[in-house]
Write a structure and sequence with these properties.
Elements lengths: L19 E3 L9 H5 L2 H13 L12 H26 L2 E2 L20 E3 L4 E2 L5 H4 L1 H19 L3 H22 L4 H11 L3 E2 L2 E2 L8 E5 L5 E4 L23 H5 L2 E3 L11
Parallel strand pairs: 1-3, 7-9
Antiparallel strand pairs: 2-4, 5-6, 7-8
Helix pairs in contact: 2-3, 3-5, 3-6, 5-6, 6-7
Length: about 270
């Protein structure tokens, strides 16, 4: 973990701060940009990742778009927590552009910590657009475009996967720092507006909720912005909060958990 991030990732949360590290001198790991240039390597990573799911997906006919989408969830869960904590809490921009960050993969196709050339630069008081430009336009955008080109997954799905975890990260940081106004402002700018200063926001989608009844009473759940295609993998089903799950599409009120969802996939 980069030292400046350590206070923001205590206890069980600590492992999530280790998604980035300083590159050792002479690192030979390729940059993310260079790694993305090889379609065969990208597809192989997605298939290796699928073989380590529970249950494993080994069918060679499994749709590559779904494999790539699910792989991107693991990718973003490694990348996003430290980058968001740095940008929103420390007001520090980490050098995570695809031409700067270096990438190596574990045996299961998941990314090892992204290796950065330095620990970033402070941007106190800079607007959200400036502090998040490198992450959004210099990393997520080219990854989404390349996954679309090589694997056939729609860019909006990849962006939706990033949004899914941004919600989780901002929620966790808000619990740790409930009076931090900057967190609320960045969250709203990233996820709650349809455009970024005139550019379409590919992560934006109006929230939709469903209410479920049980013996303990009604509970309301906010659905995910987009489906991650998990249900297309052999042996797997819909995520509990998937907007495409039949029980979530059919009604705004359902009785208990969906019978046709895979809660472990969420």
């Amino acid at each position: 973990m980069i030292p400046c991030l350590e206070p923001l990732f205590p206890g069980e949360w600590r492992t999530h701060g280790a998604g980035v590290a300083l590159a050792p001198s002479g690192s030979t790991a390729p940059t993310v940009a260079a790694w993305l240039e090889c379609p065969a390597t990208l597809a192989a990573a997605c298939r290796a990742h699928a073989r380590h799911l529970d249950p494993p997906v080994t069918d060679p006919q499994a749709p590559l778009a779904a494999l790539a989408s699910v792989w991107s969830l693991t990718y973003f869960w490694r990348l996003l927590p430290p980058v968001v904590a740095a940008a929103s809490v420390l007001q520090r921009v980490l050098p995570v552009g695809t031409t700067q960050a270096r990438l190596a993969l574990a045996e299961d196709g998941a990314p090892l910590p992204f290796l950065l050339p330095h620990d970033g630069h402070a941007m106190p008081g800079a607007p959200s657009a400036e502090r998040y430009a490198t992450l959004l336009h210099g990393h997520i955008a080219p990854v989404a475009a390349r996954l679309a080109e090589c694997c056939g997954v729609a860019p909006r799905i990849v962006w939706g996967n990033a949004a899914r975890y941004l919600e989780v990260i901002f929620s966790q940081l808000a619990r740790m720092l409930p009076t931090h106004a900057g967190l609320r402002a960045d969250h709203a700018w990233l996820l709650a507006r349809p455009d970024w200063d005139g550019l379409e926001n590919p992560m934006y989608r109006p929230a939709r909720a469903v209410t479920r009844g049980s013996a303990q009473g009604d509970t309301t759940h906010t659905l995910l912005r987009r489906c991650c295609l998990y249900y297309q993998l052999p042996g797997h089903g819909y995520c509990d909060l998937c907007p495409l799950a039949p029980c979530n599409r059919a009604a705004r009120r359902v009785a208990g958990p969906c019978a046709d969802v895979d809660t472990a996939a969420c």
